[in-house]
Each structure stands twice: as C-alpha cells, then as structure tokens.
Amino acid sequence: MPPAQRSFRVEAIVLRHSEWGEADRLLTLYTRERGKLRAIAKGARRIKSRKAGHLEPFTRVTLQLAKGRDLAIITQAETVEAYIGLRDDLLRTAIASTALEMLDRFTYEDETNNVNIYHLLTETLQRISNLQDPWVAARFFEVQVLDFLGYRPQLVNCANCGEEILPANQYFSVVQGGILCPRCGAGLPGAQPVSMDALKYLRHFQRSTFSAAHQARPGMDVRVEIEVVLQSYITYLLERELKSPGFLAQVRN
C-alpha cells in the first residue's frame, strides 16, 4: 500500500481562533475540500509571525497543512480574499459574525463535505462586505444553510394538518418545524404569529437564487419579524442562543 499522505492543501474561511500553548493559535476553519476542521498555527501569536495576518476570522485563505498527532498543523498560509469591507464597518462585522457563528454551531468535524455551503459562505461574505444593504444577504444565507443541512422549515403547507397555506396571517412553530394554519396555530403554546408578508419573503429566500432574492424590499417591521422567526428556529435546533445576534443588536442601537 502507498504511504498515507502527510501533507495536504485546502482553501478555507477562518471561522474563529483561540490561544493555544504559549505562542500558537488554534483555528476553526470551514474548507472547500474537507468541510470543517481545526488546525494549529505554530508561533502565530508572535509579533514577527508571517502567518498571523493571513489567519484572522473572515479571511479566505489557501493553506498547506501537515497531519499532526491530533490536529493538523498549518505550514503555509496565503490570503485569497480579506473582505476589507467587513473590517472597516462594525455593523458589517457583526452581521458576518452571526453567519460564521451559525455555521460553526451547526457543523462538526469529520462530516461529509458540503462544497455548496463553502461557496455560499464565500459569496455571503463578499455580499456583506460590498452591498449597500447586506440584510437580504444575511437572511438568504440563514435560510439556505438550514436547507443544505437538512433543517428546511415547512413554509408551503401547514406543518400540522398538511393543508396548503392560504394568503392570510399564519403561525410558526419551531417544534413542528414550520408554518401552521390559523386553525392549528391559534392558542398553541409556543406558536408565534407570522404575517403573510413575512411568510412571502421567507418563501422567496428559500426557493430563489440570490439575484432574485436580492430584489426583495421588506419594510423594517417585516425585517424584524423575519429575524425573530429565523433566530427562534435556529435557537430551538441548536438548543442554545447564538451570541452574535446580541452583539449585532448592540451595534444597531
């Protein structure tokens, strides 16, 4: 048998990093080739480190890694895209942080790679960095990631009785995983009212390309309603709240 390959190359987005040992950093990456993985950057906290500038969160990089005993070790790093617009605007930083944290919480190492998620992530960071209003890009990312990972909410038929949803205000149940008609949702503990406008945009983000979704112009009240629905559903699935939406709320205020 040929010897196992000791070195490999990936393209990745840096999701986060933390201190490791006296001068190293532990990085959590989402890669195009292998999905989510963790790797050590030796000496990255030293002032003269050549790798440190390439390994900040939100950065798209190409990496050469060597297989270590427990974790891969980064031997080379080169920036592909720094997404400068995210770093110069605190609001955009907070929006991008929410996307990265969501992906980090929903994915695990050694899972089957989903290259579609990687491409969605890189496109989303580009959109948040460049678009005048990145709100749709953030919501489109959340809806599409839920779909890719098998958590697609039911938005067309009642998640309880199966009847087609009519053009009227409805309810959303995180427990049942989708929209409930007024007959099933009224008075049900935990079911939250959802306007037809909010449901219309949620459906649009679920079934459209981004170029089509980007034409959406929901008002502020509908935006808040959509965010509440999505964050409630994400919190239920993860059994914990994300931290970044709280930071985003502080920045907005």
What does this structure look like?
With 253 residues, this protein is of the alpha+beta class. The protein folds into 2 domains: 7-82, OB fold (Dihydrolipoamide Acetyltransferase, E2P), CATH 2.40.50.140; 88-252, Up-down Bundle (de novo design (two linked rop proteins)). 39% of the residues lie in helices and 22% in strands. It contains 9 helices and 8 strands. The chain has helices spanning 84-87, 90-106, 115-130, 135-148, 182-185, 196-207, 210-213, 220-238, 244-252, and strands spanning 7-20, 24-31, 35-41, 60-66, 72-81, 170-173, 178-180, 192-194. The strands form 2 sheets. Strands 1-2-3-5-4 form a 5-stranded mixed barrel. The chain has a 3-stranded antiparallel sheet with strand order 7-6-8. Strand 4 and strand 5 (72-81) form a beta hairpin.
Produce the secondary structure layout.
Layout: E1 7-20, E2 24-31, E3 35-41, E4 60-66, E5 72-81, H1 84-87, H2 90-106, H3 115-130, H4 135-148, E6 170-173, E7 178-180, H5 182-185, E8 192-194, H6 196-207, H7 210-213, H8 220-238, H9 244-252
Parallel strand pairs: 3-5
Antiparallel strand pairs: 1-2, 1-4, 2-3, 4-5, 6-7, 6-8
Helix pairs in contact: 2-3, 2-4, 2-9, 3-4, 6-8
Features of the shown structure:
five-stranded mixed barrel; 22% strand; OB fold (Dihydrolipoamide Acetyltransferase, E2P); 9 helices; 253 residues; alpha+beta; de novo design (two linked rop proteins); single chain; three-stranded antiparallel sheet
- On the 0 to 100 scale, the average pLDDT is 92
Strand content: 15-25%
Strand order of the largest sheet: 1-2-3-5-4
Helix content, binned percent? 25-40%
Number of helices: 9
Morphology call: elongated
Structural class: alpha+beta
CATH architecture assignment name of the largest domain:
Up-down Bundle
